[in-house]
């Protein structure tokens, strides 16, 4: 895509700090470095978000995640965890509209990275949850 920063990085029009590359995937350091080793994994094919993936592309991209995660862990043995984050669409905090997966090493509870999951279990009955699951399930092809 013409004005996509990640396509430009992949095409070497913009410099990056490469972590891994093969025929399907390019992984490089996020310049924000939320924590040391924060890596982005992108498909070389331009897709805006997860909703544009087909099974072949998904298999290619997501098969590389464990390999790159293990490399981060070996490079930084002091990490205590790793967040894998994929934001899709603006409301879900996607800011670059070329699909990418964040691998964020975690060093401590105080490493300036937070995620909050609200617990709304009390707002749903078993019947309501079953109806939601059925509604989604009917759409899976």
From TrEMBL:
Native source species: Enterococcus entomosocium
InterPro entries xrefs: HINT (IPR039384), Histidine_triad_CS (IPR019808), Histidine_triad_HIT (IPR001310), HIT-like (IPR011146), HIT-like_sf (IPR036265)
Listed name of the protein: HIT family protein
One Gene Ontology term from the biological process aspect of the record: methylation
Gene Ontology MF terms in the entry: methyltransferase activity
Domain of life: Bacteria
Pfam families with a match to the protein in the record: HIT
Matching CDD domains: HINT_subgroup
Gene3D superfamilies: HIT-like
Alphabetic keyword roster: Methyltransferase, Transferase
């Amino acid at each position: 895509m013409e004005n996509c920063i990640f396509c430009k990085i992949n095409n070497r029009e913009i410099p990056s700090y490469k972590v891994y590359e093969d025929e399907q995937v390019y992984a490089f350091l996020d310049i924000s470095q939320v924590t040391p080793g924060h890596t982005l994994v992108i498909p070389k094919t331009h897709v805006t978000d997860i909703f544009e993936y087909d099974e072949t592309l998904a298999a290619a991209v997501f098969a590389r995640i464990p390999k790159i995660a293990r490399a981060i862990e070996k490079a930084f043995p002091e990490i205590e965890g790793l967040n894998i984050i994929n934001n899709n669409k603006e409301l879900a905090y996607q800011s670059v509209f070329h699909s990418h997966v964040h691998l964020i090493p975690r060093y401590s509870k105080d490493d300036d990275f937070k995620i909050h999951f609200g617990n709304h279990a009390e707002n749903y009955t078993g019947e309501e949850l079953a109806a939601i699951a059925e509604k989604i399930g009917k759409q899976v092809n």
